[in-house]
């Protein structure tokens, strides 16, 4: 099996699963309980929070645990909107946001808020000048992802931070799900970022766990009411085993970040060089200012899902668009935002690499691709 769908989810590290099992079986008390078992669980919870904060260079009281990226995005988009509604109801998100952000914002449009979509250029980068033109006195929130999940473009977070530097009334949210442990933290967690969201299973943690960064002093309406956990911002019993596993996964992933960037970048470059020799191949991902591990391309006249299943027949697993959208059967929304024609956008498949992949897998993939390509030539 060759697994090239790491942007959808990664395989948990064995050490992470061991941590999860140990905490779940030996430290299973409720961290809110006052007895010894509860105190033991709370110590693990707070130690995990501290470790994650240290790895990101933030304060532990700025880390809040969630069930993953979708919850975190919804919480920030809706929570900031409702908290700041008395001061304005205008929100800006980019055209190419993950559905967890974009659909949350569009839902707010049905609740009396105004939403503008900041355009992107033909290469998949937010146009900062056009975003600036959308700003209004009543703008309360700007949300732009750090790394696009469909083509891997690294968004100009620093430039947007500079734009918002003298606009303290506007909250700035960054979806960092595809960025964490993949590109340098400083590239997306700037001093101007007020909120950022992350998901454990994107960096070899377990599913169902994530966390949000909320800068000290920034207010947000609670998503869940109840027992007052997470400083009364997210009331529900914390998944201590999953959180401990997340801290372990993040430490391991960030220790390997430089190797990850170098090795996946080399594999991506080899793929691009080879695929570029086929006349009917369209490559949608670049290398400059792109994440090193994401490559999206297509064969003209061949739908992405057809290509996906053709590779699956050889034990190679890829994706069409984002995992959250692929079953809908729509073209990649990012590509449409870039001006790619819908018929061409439907051809896209995404390869997302990891340190667990190697050059021998790349070579096998390219050998299989050649077979599939020439087979499709007969039916195009």
Automatic annotation (TrEMBL):
Q: Provide the transmembrane region boundaries.
A: none
Which keywords does this Swiss-Prot/TrEMBL entry list? Aminotransferase, Iron, Iron-sulfur, Metal-binding, Pyridoxal phosphate, Transferase
What the entry lists under SUPFAM superfamilies is as follows: PLP-dependent transferases (SSF53383)
State any single GO MF term.
Answer: transaminase activity
Q: Which Pfam families match?
A: Aminotran_5 (PF00266)
Record keywords: Ligase included? Answer: no
Q: Which Gene3D superfamilies match?
A: 1.10.260.50, Aspartate Aminotransferase, domain 1, Type I PLP-dependent aspartate aminotransferase-like (Major domain)
As cofactor, the record names: pyridoxal 5'-phosphate
Record keyword Coiled coil present:
no
Q: Which domain of life does this protein belong to?
A: Bacteria
- Family annotation (InterPro entries): Aminotrans_V_dom, Aminotrans_V_PyrdxlP_BS, Cysteine_dSase, PyrdxlP-dep_Trfase, PyrdxlP-dep_Trfase_major, PyrdxlP-dep_Trfase_small
The residue ranges of the Aminotransferase class V domain are 2-365
Task: Give the family, as the similarity comment puts it.
Answer: Belongs to the class-V pyridoxal-phosphate-dependent aminotransferase family. NifS/IscS subfamily.
Spell out the protein name for this chain: Aminotransferase V
- Which organism does this record belong to? Streptococcus azizii
Q: What is the lineage of its organism?
A: Bacteria, Bacillati, Bacillota, Bacilli, Lactobacillales
